[in-house]
């Protein structure tokens, strides 16, 4: 009676809950990676074909369906052999006993352990059906090469689910648990085939298959297939990001993921991820003085905030330092958000407002343009396209740091810094590539910033959805400001600081260089926003970059070009309803061919005509000045014309004139033309 009812003291039913792998997969079911301590994927007995079940019972326990958990004939036979050998040599365990031993007991061979095994087996038989016991057994046993359970073994050795196994394949797997290394079909195919045929013979002996099937199955090849992607690391950065998001957002630890059997649906685009990982691994990096430079990249779908691709290093593998989450000084990539966007949200500024571009100091802060050249005044448009440092600092000083920081806060780019160096991205603590991609994505969404995420949905081992992504967004800039910045940043890519590299379709963005230590490109297409950072992990003395932000700009353009070959990307940004287009900037001509002619106008007066060549832009204003002692006098102006008439000109006058072109958008004047004389030569 103690043996029969003592099982409750041996069995802890919590031990029957098996550690199960977590799968990371796309919405269409493509498994990206598996997270596990033990490579196990639990399946129900209904998913295991009858012939696979029969293969295991035939070779391990032919009376499984009849006995009550213990095969007493087998035990007597084992005891007899133990007495003859004077030591413990044979177990004669049923499938139920094997399950009890593996789950509840140690592997020591003692009489007491055997007694506990019997008690546990009897307990299992009283409290579980045969199908439930066989299901636990098939999901529990070890099949070699790190695989636990019938489903993981089926996928490992045959690249298919257990539900699709043939009779011969099921027999091969049934033969493995006895000695997985000895009978490995990859390492010892001859031994594996011999063992498989033994299992098939046992199936014939117990009536599971007939002689014709036996002969046919024993004549088949092993049909095993290795997974060629087992050593690939292209997804590692992204999956590590998923694991961190699960912990921070949903409070599920890495250890729990390894054993909990979750299904995580992620937003990765495998095509983009593979392209990005390959380019980050083998692409062109900026040279540096301290060996190979590192890099990181993030690409998001700005329509949703979903992270399509993330690469945390040039040779990233699981557990490495994930630079996608590493904060770095953003340099000039911050300018649209810390300076120009906030300014355009004010009534006082528009894209063609004039800004100071003079060498100057702001207290103890002395910014310099990257080329140390200054134009006196430039438009906001020019300042952003040409990445003028002094103009950015001057404008931030005008609009006020507290005001500008309210926009940075909304964008998730908060900083504790209080100085004007914010305008140039010179921060005590920078931002991550994910944060920069989020910010640039807001410009593509009419100023609406959407939080990035990797996990779309999580389900537990029972298939119950336990977490779903909830969109979070905030309106940062209005649609007009965002559209103005989009149009300007397209010019930055085409003709400005981000013009390096080739990408023929729609792309807006900005580069940044931080004191020879960090280089960036961040931008967006009609579909995606992204950021590329390059630099050293630590700025030790002597580590210096020897190049410009052209390198990350070229890398992003190469990635987008390859993505476009797989899925056609947009050729133009769609202008939102109700917003104005940004007028093309005006290029003022230098006039050197002005001429003056006199015509008789009656009595003693003449009419003078001044002519000059003009460009195609009919918006340019031409102001005509008469030279006078002291201060010259404006006598008139014309728009889009290369001719001006001066009437009531005395025959005795001798006067000189010149033309000054003016920009109607900014009010800025160009260089005076050559001087011409109107007089009557006798």
TrEMBL record:
It catalyses: [GlcNAc-(1->4)-Mur2Ac(oyl-L-Ala-gamma-D-Glu-L-Lys-D-Ala-D-Ala)](n)-di-trans,octa-cis-undecaprenyl diphosphate + beta-D-GlcNAc-(1->4)-Mur2Ac(oyl-L-Ala-gamma-D-Glu-L-Lys-D-Ala-D-Ala)-di-trans,octa-cis-undecaprenyl diphosphate = [GlcNAc-(1->4)-Mur2Ac(oyl-L-Ala-gamma-D-Glu-L-Lys-D-Ala-D-Ala)](n+1)-di-trans,octa-cis-undecaprenyl diphosphate + di-trans,octa-cis-undecaprenyl diphosphate + H(+); Preferential cleavage: (Ac)2-L-Lys-D-Ala-|-D-Ala. Also transpeptidation of peptidyl-alanyl moieties that are N-acyl substituents of D-alanine. Keywords: Carboxypeptidase, Cell membrane, Cell shape, Cell wall biogenesis/degradation, Glycosyltransferase, Hydrolase, Membrane, Multifunctional enzyme, Peptidoglycan synthesis, Protease, Transferase, Transmembrane, Transmembrane helix. Residues 295-560 form the Penicillin-binding protein transpeptidase domain. InterPro entries: Beta-lactam/transpept-like, Glyco_trans_51, Glycosyltr_51/Transpeptidase, Lysozyme-like_dom_sf, PBP_transglycosylase, PCN-bd_Tpept. Residues 29-203 form the Glycosyl transferase family domain. It comes from the Bacteria. Transmembrane segments: none annotated. NCBIfam families: PBP_1a_fam. This is PBP1A family penicillin-binding protein. The lineage of its organism: Bacteria, Bacillati, Bacillota, Bacilli, Bacillales.
